[in-house]
Amino acid sequence: MFWILAIFTLGSALLMVMNKNIFHSALFMVLTFIGVAAMYVMLQADFMAAVQILVYAGAIAIFLVFGIMLTQRGNMKQTNLFAKHTAVAGLVSLALVVINAFMVWNTNWLKSTAEPPQDTVGQIADLMLGKFMVPFEVAAILLLVALLGAVIIAKGVKKTS
Amino acid sequence: MMGNIGLEHFLIFSGTLFCIGLFGALAKRNVIAILMGLEIMLNSVNINLVAFSRYATTGDLTGQVFAIFVVAVAAAEVAVGLALIVAIYRDRMSVNVEDFDWLKW
User: Is the CB of A74 inside 8 Å of chain B's CB atoms?
Assistant: First the structure.
């Protein structure tokens, strides 16, 4: 099961990166997000899986499709080409994959053998509104500022003279 | 049911996903494709956090709370990033990063 999901997710991520049509890229990105949500289910993080589907496969995917529609005209072919330094980027990424896999495999990880908790939502709520209340409020302010900033940047500042 | 899938498998999976996102962010010409690569990278980091909270500190869900904060910051980042892209597109009529050369002399 893990292997099927891993191949599905990594395959759609690769197709997303390699696609020449940016709209198809966005669709493969949604598939990748859904694969990641299934990974959260395998890790017994059901609340994270729900958040992943809602925020990434829902909101961010629609946001990016909006961006594509606003900035492309005519046909979508050849809208997502590679830049000049593709070979170097590929080399760096491939080297990072190999080094990362090697390091992870050769590290002795500290593991616990306890059973994972059943009720994740309640515990997350306790942590978020208890121990992490200040970061929670800061995240709320960050979202408000990002909302205002996005509106102001996209609208453009009127010249006053 | 899961056989012997452990922490290492999830870490290698998320590392590989991160590198695919990194390749997309580094090698693409379209700014929106770069933003997509960034999203994939943030997602793989979240898998790491949740995997550690599942296998290393089982019972303590701090890792998942942190992952939720990462999701919130990523949403804010996409909103501001797309607003910037739209503003630049209106100015330059292009989404190709190789055309964005104001800061070059």
Answer: no
